[in-house]
Amino acid sequence: MNLDDVIADFDALVEANKRGINPLGKTLPSGRLLHNPAKRTVKSASRWASQQVDNAVKAADDWLDGVKNPSRDPVAAAIDSAAKWEDKMSTAIKEGRFVKGLKKVPTGEIAAIATAVGSGAFSTGITARRGKIDRVVGELQTLAQSTSDTIQALPDKTDADREKRLLSARKLMIEVGRRRRG
Length: 182
Known about the structure:
Number of helices: 11
Radius of gyration: 21 Å
Distance between the termini: 27 Å
Strand content: under 5%
Shape: globular
Structural class: mainly alpha
Order of helices and strands: HHHHHHHHHHH
Number of strands: 0
Largest sheet: none
Helix content: over 70%
């Protein structure tokens, strides 16, 4: 099975999941039958979003403590990641805005701002974004379920099969990101 077949199966599963159709027992575009009685399901969008919000709110004090007591200099760490950031933000890097801006930030200022705002700002910000989180997770859940269904439908009897599953999983995760960006 080639990557085009995997993507075609993924597309079919995305559509089935969007329509609320259980894809088990259905024939995929590649001709394979999706049958896995031990299939794992991705959490519902509502449960997933609720857990993200609840866990983020519970982590507010840890967030503040982490900002006030970083394990490394956050400005230096960000500068060290300039090459990766450049790949994603080539225009800004070509103009030098990333590194120039970071060099102007005193490390202590980050903790001072977080202390002044307090941990409540973090949980308030997360709670205020609940509608956005519900919307994004609702879109992402269908893609995540389709990714899971696609990968689980691939054979895994040999090392070569498992390697192909890993590579397909990576490609599908990239595809999910591409589709989320539009």
